Amino acid sequence: MEALIPILNKLQDVFNTVGSESIQLPQIVVVGSQSAGKSSVLENLVGRDFLPRGAGIVTRRPLTLQLVYTPPEDKVVQCQSLGMPVPDENEFAIFTHIKNKIYTDFNEIRHEIEAETDRLGGKKNISHEPITLKIYSPKVVTLTLVDLPGLTKVPVEDQPADIETQVRNLIMHYISNPNAIILAITPANVDFSTSEAVKFAKEVDPEGRRTLAVLTKLDLMDRGTDAYDVLCGRIIPVKLGIIGVVNRSQEDIHKKKLIEEALRYESALLQKNYPSIASRNGTPFLAKTLNRLLMHHIRDCLPALKTRINQMVSHFQTLVNSFGEPIEDKGRLLLQIITKFASSYCATIEGTAKNIEVSELCGGARICYIFHETFARALESINPLDTLTTFDILTAIRNATGPRPALFVPEVSFELLVKRQIKRLEDPGLRCVELVHEELQRIIQHCGAQQEFIRFPRLHEKIVDVVTHLLRRRLPETNRMVENLVGIELAYINTKHPDFYEAGLIHKALTGGDYITTTTTNQNQPQHSHNKSQRDISRGKENRSSEESTLGKITSYSRALVQQHLTDGNDDESIVNGDQPSRSMSNTTNSSPTTTAISMVPIGDGTTINARQLSPREQRDCEVIEKLIRCYFLIVRKNIQDSVPKAIMHFLVNYVKDQLQSELVASLYKTATHEHDELLDESGQIAQRRKDAQEMLEALHKGNQIISEVRETHLW
Q1: Region entry Disordered: which residue ranges (predicted)?
Q2: The pLDDT value given to residue 501
């Protein structure tokens, strides 16, 4: 069991080298008010004067005091293990912040503590950085204690105004460690129930499982009073006990009274005033109790400590791996990063990336959404007849006839108007290209090699530049292709298109009826229907052989309208007879009551059409053109909805996927060696973090090895 405390000291040395506060080691934390006797208790345990003294807060940095029992015959072995020369004295000390120096003069130790305190904390400030002092002596019991600044209420002299808060935060930081034993120092000449040290201990250890109280200055109590009730736990019970001690007075310290003599005085006073409990009090009993408590506490904490170390080993190993190994072959590493990035970029587009985004669509999934949701909705939102009024249609028909009155609906008017509507499909297509381009640019931030980008910021910038330039080069060509797709539709209005002609759209336009749809004959239909089917087929052949061109149908329809005008006897008849139409609203008395009221009276130069009533023929002509425009526009819109995504995939997405790696290699890898050095110039922050993580990992491995040695020796 005695070997557990040196093992704890080794662990503290290991983790102090990396400044880790993530490992909460077992330790004894000394807490008390100013002038409560903390320093005297520690000096009594060591048997030497070595702590700074004075007015105000003298201890302004935590002092980790490691006491190592070292008999004279073990002194040589101990010094050899430390790599230090063997001193003549049997009592010696070392500071962890000073290498290769042994202290045998304890006054010099005091001066070094004062100097090191001032180095970080100045003359008045509090510092959280601990000072570690190891004392090797045949007079001590193996212990590890942490001496903290004394509790204070009011700042004095040049102390900060928040000195109380600083001290409180420092104390709470140490005693909140669940593996810490709290040594609460309280003077016997004050009411124990008002003890600040006990109050602090109860805040973090309400059940008192890890609190040991020490009652100092038993010799300074008022006459006629004693501390029996307090020491026996009748006032405030403390589970680990309450131990009374007698310290040297200020006069004894000035007179340099030896600690051995002070211990003899303490023993005599306890035997005289507290004979029944004298054996359970005093500095020697306190030292043995602390040693026993610490050993049992270490034994209880080691399993959980080993688990915690294993968890941290795994974490820091992952961290070190993420930072990468030191660079040996920069060209090879550069090629690996380029390949990794290109593969990850393509995988993000294809949906095969290892780290799939769950919070939003990205990569290929977002491109699919753009094609089939965003682009499709944009096309569907375009009404075939938007921005096209009856006046526009009628004007186009009249303009297409020239100076002669038309007997038939001119073909040119249909083509002119439908092209105007088809042109409106170009903007959604170009916007679709833009959205896909933006997503391809955004993939750079989502794909792999992110850790390499953090490690090599210059390389990250160059890769982003190369990919951005590649995408920008392909953008104009893709836009031109989309424009060409719309231009192709505008170049030739195919009125023989199967969906426009054979499916009966013309028939619907001319008759106002439903679309003629073809039905598939069931192969298993009864034999008696065979003759009828044959007749239908023959009739279909005859009809197709006698059909005119699509716009020829419109002409035939117009002839029928002329014949109807001849028999109507309305003002339409005047058109056939060559009479001019009425120029005023008052002369249109025979107009149909259902026709739209517009005026054909020219205003100004006679280029506009104004409100008057449409004739039945004009109304029917406009309706025919509207139906034909709608039918043909829907066919073209369907073609554009299908062809634009294909063009974008071919000219932009697939091209970038195929050319990305070769583009990166040509721009980054096939360059001079000094440019490789610039690209792979590590961030200073990453280099430092890797170094810190490697040091921490080494410390954790050492700690694990130390704990494993404890397991092998069956100490726990």
Answers
A1: 517-554, 567-604
A2: 64
